[in-house]
Amino acid sequence: MQDAKLAIVIMAAGKGTRLKSRRPKVLHEIGGKPLLSHVIAAASRIVAPGHIYVVVGHQADRVREAVAHTGVRLVEQAEQRGTGHAIQCAAGAISGYGNILVLSGDVPLIRPETIEQLWQFHQSQQAAMTILTAAPEDPTGYGRILRAAPGSPEVAAIVEQKSLAPDQLGLREINSGIYAFRTAPLLAHLGELTTGNAHGEFYLTDMAALLRKAGERVVAIEAADAAEILGANTIAELVSLDQALRAATAARLMAAGVTIFRPDTCVIDAEVEIAPDTVIEPYVQLLGKTTIGTECRIRSYSVIENCTLGDDVLVRQSCVLAESSVAGGARIGPFAHLRPESRIGENAHIGNFVETKKAVLGKGAKANHLAYLGDAEVGDGTNIGAGVITVNYDGVLKHRTRIGKNAFIGSDSTLIAPVSVGDGSLVGAGSCITHDVPADALAVSRARQVTKEGWAAARRARRQQSKAEQNKTKPEGE
Ligand code: UD1
Ligand code: CA
């Protein structure tokens, strides 16, 4: 739904004192993405980014940089004097809208469907203020909702944790920090907020009692799932939100036909996509924008970040893959390292302790053991022997190695780039290749073998005789 009459304000200026971190709170990550990015993503499903206003303050430059690509607008709150003050700073930006929704940058699990429900309820109730609430197991730390009467949709006040009277400690309904306001009454009374409270701040929550006193309608709607509106104020809370989000991601993938054994041990970022019939073994990390095809198997302890894997790919144990692509039917690992911009072709094999970087391997190419392929092209069907190294760096510049199709590079060869090996050529094991090799040739560059029969036995005999003579001349007792 796009409604130019509606703006969304996201409060994100706070420092996050309770995190004890130098990083601004809203840039702390869950599910591999900053808290604020989750909230912006949800808000963008309700209104266009041009109608989303993010209030920034603490380390505003870092926050601004992190959200620049989203197209949202920014409002400066130079001094952070509370949530009410954050909205006061946004007053100019929102005055042209009939209504606003207020979201908190540190309440990241909120779903667009729930925001939509709040907005619909707000309109149907013709309220000046509508508060999204929940009833979690443990309400400690949150503002509590004081209903006008039991069972009534109307709210008398929001009471912050520190201001709870003894008889209010039992109140279980909490304020989510997410609201809808009709802009006119909000702006008319926003200046009446005071700092006479435990924190000496302007509390947006005080608007509930203020508006009601002014004869405006203030209501609340309870979210079906309290887990969605939990805040991240401490590292422990942040980690538990991360866990909840990852559990939801794993559940989404499993519902779509992906097998994830021991999902509690896997770290899967929110944007990962996996086709059905793929199996993820325990202790796997799938990070960033990783996409995996069908019928793949990712074995334990592998970490895959921002990669695209085709269908029927096997990644064996303990591989590290970053910013790379692997085509269908390929076999990777165990203990392989694909560094950025590696492109592994269909049915290719990358084996134990093979490292690639900016390497393109063709269909069915194989590098099965202990190789380094950096800045290299390897044609279809070519076999790279154990211990082969493309020497890509001369201490200053990087150079490319080009190996054609169906070539065979013998074990322990070094290819000093820039250099090329033509289609169908063979490089003898232990060679150091410094000149281009044409197609269908043999290149060998190693010393000829010398064999002296009986030499070792004769040496052994000489040595043993010397030892016996030495022992004879030694003084007694030594
Ligand atoms: C707030 C609510 C509380 C509610 C809880 C839900 C108030 C006074 N209390 O408490 O009732 O249960 O959220 O999560 O609002 N911010 C600014 N500028 C400021 C201060 C804060 O932009 O000057 C931003 C923060 O970055 C944060 C959000 O507002 O994203 C909420 O602030 P926070 O200090 O975390 O409020 P809580 O104590 O959690
Ligand atoms: Ca908070």
Q: Helix- and strand-based class?
A: alpha/beta
Low-confidence region ranges? none
Question: Which CATH C-level class of the largest domain is it?
Answer: Alpha Beta
The tally of strands reads 39
| Main beta sheet | 14 strands, parallel
Explain what the structure shows:
The chain contains nine helices and 39 strands. With 478 residues, the chain is an alpha/beta fold. It has two domains: 6-229, Alpha-Beta Complex (Spore Coat Polysaccharide Biosynthesis Protein SpsA, Chain A), CATH 3.90.550.10; 249-443, Hexapeptide repeat proteins (UDP N-Acetylglucosamine Acyltransferase, domain 1, 3 Solenoid), CATH 2.160.10. Strands 13, 14, 16, 17, 19, 20, 22, 23, 25, 26, 28, 30, 33 and 36 form a 14-stranded parallel beta sheet that branches. An eleven-stranded parallel beta sheet has the order 12-15-18-21-24-27-29-31-34-37-39, covered by helices on one side. Strand 4, helix 2 and strand 5 form a beta-alpha-beta unit. The protein is elongated. The structure holds uridine-diphosphate-N-acetylglucosamine and calcium ion.
